[in-house]
Amino acid sequence: MNLNAETAAVLDGKATAKQIRQEVAAGSAELHASHGVVPGLTVVLVGDDPASSIYVRNKEKAAKKCGMNSSIVSLPANTTEDAIISTVERLNADPAVHGILVQLPLPDGVDEQRVIETIHPDKDVDGFHPQNAGRLMIGIPGFVPCTPAGVIEMLKRNEIELKGKHAVVIGRSNIVGKPMALLLLREHCTVTVCHSRTKDLPGVAAQADILIAAVGRLGMVDASFIRPGAVVVDVGIHRVEDEETVRRLFGEDEKRLEAVRTKGSTVAGDVHPVDARGRAGWLTPVPGGVGPLTIAMLLKNALDAARRSVGLD
Ligand code: NDP
Fold first, then answer.
1. For tag attachment on the chain, is the N or C end more exposed, with fewer CB atoms within 10 Å?
2. Into how many domains does the chain fold?
3. pLDDT digit string (tens) for 146-177?
């Protein structure tokens, strides 16, 4: 670990994601050749939230590029909870569908947990079903949520030493913070999990060799949170639409300012990028860090689901 870093080295999530996607494409081709099975991923989208629609289309495109069958089941926003459940049950019973993903959030009034628990655990490629969460907890194979799984892949493939390191995770959500902490524990880190009631958050974070920011607060993790030389992983995704905020986060970054002027926005994370670059040893960029890994790991989970359906590990 470089303890005197002046400019953090980039942890290139995009490059790792590309590698994983290539491996998944090769795995899909192999499965087809050996068993005549094409991995099938179906995404259920309820309503017409523009961000969700973009995510879902990106997932579908990425799956097709890896040689999978991929489809979107689009349901209107006023679909009843029971009708969503019936859709999931139909997909559970369809042997051509190996992975099911229900895009969250679901419309108000729909019990998300009930829907998630309807997905068959063997097709739960998001890893949100309690059975898969339990499997992760006790350390037996199952589907692991894609974002934290992607973070671990990226750290390992960049040969970041994990064993014995102090990892601090800011955030305790079921989809990022908690599974992240469990995965780091599995890699023999000493893990501290922080949240909104943590006292002296910067002081705790600054003890980390590996700091994971999954807090959902734009640029909150500034220099005071970062131990010099630490590995900093920024999970946050925020759209920034005004030049003043761009300057506060990035300084006079012409490319970013230009993006706001011409496209209306740029994307930033939970970590203050200029502060972190001057203090961390390694840092994930936003965009191009954790984001691409999430989709890559979804594809990997879908391939694993298809492989397991024919009795392969
Ligand atoms: P949640 O809102 O579900 O969880 C946020 C966590 O941060 C909570 O545990 C909360 O604590 C904690 N928190 C909030 N404010 C503070 C604070 N001021 N101080 C300390 N802790 C705080 O978010 P997610 O886990 O779903 O997502 C986190 C971020 O990651 C978001 O920006 C999201 O957009 C992004 N994300 C990115 C993905 C990717 O592919 N790159 C995928 C998923 C998420 P408490 O529990 O006490 O309320």
1. C
2. 2
3. 999 999 999 999 999 999 999 999 999 999 99
Does residue 4 register a pLDDT over 50?
no
Q: Which residues are catalytic?
A: 59, 103, 126
What is the DSSP secondary structure assignment for residue 110, as one 8-state letter? S
Q: How far apart are CA 89 and CA 8, in angstroms?
A: 48
Task: Tell me, yes or no, whether 167 and 48 share the same domain.
Answer: no
The radius of gyration of the chain's CA atoms, rounded to the nearest angstrom, is 20
CB atoms near residue 24 (< 10 Å): 26
For a ligand 1 pocket test, name from 194, 195, 198 the mutation site with the most ligand atoms within 8 angstroms of its C-beta: 195
Measuring from atom 34 of ligand 1, which residue has the nearest CA? Answer: 237
* Rounded Cα gap, residues 188 and 225, in angstroms: 23
CB of 271 closer than 6 angstroms to any ligand 1 atom: no
Residue range(s) defining the domain that contains residue 42: 34-120
| One domain, residues 151 and 228 | yes
